[in-house]
Amino acid sequence: MERILKRFGKQITHFRWVVIGLWLMLLVFGGYYATQVGSHLTGGGWGVPGSDSNQAYEVLSEEFESRDATSLTFVMSHEVYQVGSDEYTEAFKLVSQSLQNEPEIDQVYTWLDVEETTRGPFVSEDAYTSIGFIEVNVDEGFAQKVLPDIQERLTASLGESGFEATILGAPAFWGEMNELSQAGLEKAHFYAFPIIVIVLLFVFRSVVSSITPLLLSGFSIAASLGILHFIAQGMELSIFVLDAALMLGIGVGIDFALIFVKRFREELEKSGDDTALAVSETMGTAGHAILFSGITIIVAMSAVLFVDIAAVRSIALGVIVVVFFLILTSLTLLPVFLTIVGPKINAWKVPFLPIKEARQNEKGTWYRLAHRVMRRPVLYLTMSVVFLLALAWPALELEVSTPDARMLPEDTQVRKGLSHLEEGFGIGYSAPIQVVVSAEEGQLIDESGLEELQNIVAKIEEMDNVEGITSLFSLFPNFTVEQIERCYLIKVNG
Prior knowledge:
By secondary structure, the protein is mainly alpha-helical. It has helices at about 1-10, 15-35, 50-65, 85-100, 140-160, 170-205, 205-235, 240-270, 275-300, 310-340, 360, 365-375, 375-390, 415-425, 445-460, 480-494, and strands spanning about 70-75, 105-110, 130-135, 165-170.
């Protein structure tokens, strides 16, 4: 393989302008589609196919008209006006209409749509807070993307009236969480870039050589996002694929460039500034290491593709694609760039940071450390294992939990809406657990089916931490199963 890479390195220097032209075309192509990939990514993808929860999701979507697991709740509250007052009713109608104007929303069901005697479940005890239900026509993943914008327009429609209206539900929570995460990552990238530049200048010791990892990362990330745009057309990809591509693209790009450039400098010095020979020799050594290092990463991440969770697969796919393009840029674009630059790779040296020559490095600090370890391998192995075990020991006490609204800042809309809901309706009302019951034989609405359903409800009520249950029987208080069955038959038969 080393000989093949050396011959390839020698040949590619003769076609350097063709290679650069091809990569510039790919940069334009990838950059164009990279700007559009975000619209095809989802915020979901955490469902586990075949699990009980996913089966319940499918039954809700298939068997209940205008009702699925993406159904949402919205809560509206005011400190002075109560439900039923003219001011509250007018504002509530405005909110309902604002929601119904959204193309992603099919239906809004509120206390305005029921008889006054059955408004209890929609209104809090103090009557300052009320709720409604929203049916959307997109899946949970895309709902997470559009709900932050819908919430922003909903808040704007109320102006300075003192009313607060908030869309709640898992898609709304994750939508706001994703918005905050993306904003945080953008801020982190903004602050990280100057730090990266400083580190590059410190490591590479010259301005020209510091450009190489940015060159690798820029071309690789643009091409990767362009390819991911087309992959997203045929399969669900999470928005986290962007973070995976960006982080690995920058990190691995710096790593590959450092290996290649350092070796190129050494070979350039040995060959007496013969650029073509230096590139060829570097391809056989550093290029060989980069090739197999990249393949190792790709093979390792390929195993994650077998995890049957779309969001996890998306992260693995982002890593695989960007590392694949980093290998290509490292073995094609980087060699031709160094061929053009040649000895000027050390141009614009950083003051007070001299570039050490190869012969000075032969017995440097790392050389001496390596030989010290090899003289006492058992001792250093024991010390390393003990040190790593000491670092890992706290993991035995690690406690994990499912993320909830407490992760959000207190001033976020979802967090404030949940506070109003819990104050008015009680803790736990904001995240009800949906239980789907289906019958393999017969109907649940006949007498035997209703009795079985009644038993299931009774068993759930006996469970710890169950505050209350809303079921079919909640719509027919004080009715017997025979009366409920009779009402159903009357409705069906007209």
